């Protein structure tokens, strides 16, 4: 995502595409199983409701950032007048580079800052663990002959080399290829599901209250781009940022529709035999193998991108108390890769990882910590309703 260029070079389609790519991740592959646990009607209602609250909450985050900038501008204008009266002058520049952590610190102090940073670190590691589980289980189904742990060890070794890349530009070509592979594979799996709906669709459950809590965690996990909302908004040229809320809401509405359709069609296609990762339901064959291979390739190179902010945050904190050499930075990155591998060995379950991360870290980032606007003293009746939904959602999990 790159902003700051002329507005003519940054189209609405590019804005939409950036949002789409940020939010549509591996979580979609676990939605059919989640719908099996919750039922079609219950799942659709929860998905739509959570989506509406998430959209409102994430736009509140953007509003809060703009409120902080407005207050900074007012303060600097007042200070400028004082300097002018005293013979000084100000450059009129206002720092608009505000991230999630800055807002948390402004409204909740150091506790808020640490909460956000910890949530980002743990959620990103959780996403990486989910990717590793997906890759190992699909490799095992494709190739066979070896245990999932053996495949895990095999794919972890190259990740140690990718982990020491300090600039995301070095991974940009792989990232673009991964995005293309993702879209292609999701479309094929989607249409493959539709071919089998008539076989078991009539036996799909409508409501299953016992799966409510699990489904809720998975749904919040699927909105894994919540921590990137401010980065997305700042990537848009200043003169076009007024369009962001409308485009963002439209993109999330489309993504929600896609999530519901993908989850319902996958569950309706395989019924009670729906696997925790929908690709495991695909039959043997060259084409299904190609799809699994595309997804494995995509998630494999998404792993270092998702781990990048974790190493950046931790390295920045370590540098405040001691010098961090290049080698020490590498050791930190290697340690994170090893930790994610150990987590997968301990919890080799894609659905459980999604539910756990979704109901804890993603809940904080997508819902609970979005109440900055309340703390800033600008709370409308609509915001009150959203905050009530935050609290209710948090209590259910």
Automatic annotation (TrEMBL):
A Pfam family reported for this protein in Swiss-Prot or TrEMBL: Aa_trans
Its keywords, alphabetically, are: Membrane, Transmembrane, Transmembrane helix
Q: How does it sit in the membrane?
A: Multi-pass membrane protein
- What is this protein's record name? Amino acid transporter transmembrane domain-containing protein
Instruction: Locate the transmembrane regions by residue number.
Output: 15-35, 41-62, 113-136, 142-164, 171-192, 212-232, 244-270, 290-310, 331-347, 353-372
Stretches assigned to the Amino acid transporter transmembrane domain: 11-368
Sorted alphabetically, which InterPro entries does this protein's record hold?
A: AA_transpt_TM (IPR013057)
Q: Where in the cell is it found?
A: Membrane
Keyword set includes Membrane: yes
Q: Which organism is it from?
A: Salpingoeca rosetta (strain ATCC 50818 / BSB-021)
Does the record's keyword annotation contain Transmembrane?
yes
Cellular component aspect of the GO annotation: vacuolar membrane
Q: Name one GO molecular function term.
A: L-amino acid transmembrane transporter activity
Source domain of life: Eukaryota
């Amino acid at each position: 995502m790159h902003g700051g260029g002329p507005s003519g070079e940054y189209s609405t389609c590019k804005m939409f595409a950036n949002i789409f790519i940020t939010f549509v991740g591996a979580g979609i592959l676990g939605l059919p199983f989640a719908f099996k646990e919750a039922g079609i009607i219950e799942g659709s209602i929860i998905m739509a409701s959570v989506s509406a609250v998430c959209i409102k909450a994430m736009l509140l985050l953007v509003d809060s950032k703009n409120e902080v900038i407005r207050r900074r501008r007012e303060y600097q204008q007042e200070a400028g007048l004082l300097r002018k009266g005293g013979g000084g002058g100000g450059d009129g520049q206002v720092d608009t580079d505000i991230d999630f952590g800055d807002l948390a610190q402004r409204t909740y102090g150091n506790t808020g800052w640490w909460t956000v940073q910890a949530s980002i670190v743990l959620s990103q590691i959780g996403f990486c663990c989910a990717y590793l589980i997906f890759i190992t289980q699909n490799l095992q189904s494709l190739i066979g002959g070896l245990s999932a742990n053996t495949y895990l060890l095999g794919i972890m070794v190259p990740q140690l080399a990718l982990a020491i890349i300090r600039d995301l530009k070095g991974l940009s070509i792989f990232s673009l290829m991964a995005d293309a592979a993702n879209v292609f594979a999701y479309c094929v799996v989607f249409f493959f599901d539709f071919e089998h709906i008539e076989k078991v669709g009539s036996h799909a459950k409508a409501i299953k209250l016992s799966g409510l809590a699990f489904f809720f965690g998975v749904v919040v996990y699927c909105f894994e781009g919540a921590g990137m909302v401010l980065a997305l908004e700042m990537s848009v040229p200043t003169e076009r940022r007024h369009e962001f809320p409308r485009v963002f809401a439209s993109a999330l509405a489309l993504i929600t529709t896609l999530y519901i359709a993908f989850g319902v069609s996958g569950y309706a296609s395989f019924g009670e035999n729906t696997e925790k990762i929908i690709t495991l339901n695909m039959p043997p064959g060259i084409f299904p193998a190609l799809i699994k291979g595309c997804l494995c390739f995509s998630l494999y190179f998404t792993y270092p991108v998702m781990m990048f902010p974790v190493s950046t945050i931790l390295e920045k904190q370590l540098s405040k108390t001691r010098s961090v050499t290049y080698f020490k930075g590498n050791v930190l990155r290697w340690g994170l890769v090893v930790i994610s591998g150990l987590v997968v060995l301990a919890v080799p379950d894609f659905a459980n990882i999604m539910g756990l991360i979704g109901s804890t870290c993603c809940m904080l980032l997508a819902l609970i910590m979005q109440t900055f606007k309340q703390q800033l003293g600008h709370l409308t009746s609509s915001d009150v309703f959203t905050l009530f939904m935050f609290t209710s959602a948090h209590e259910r999990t």
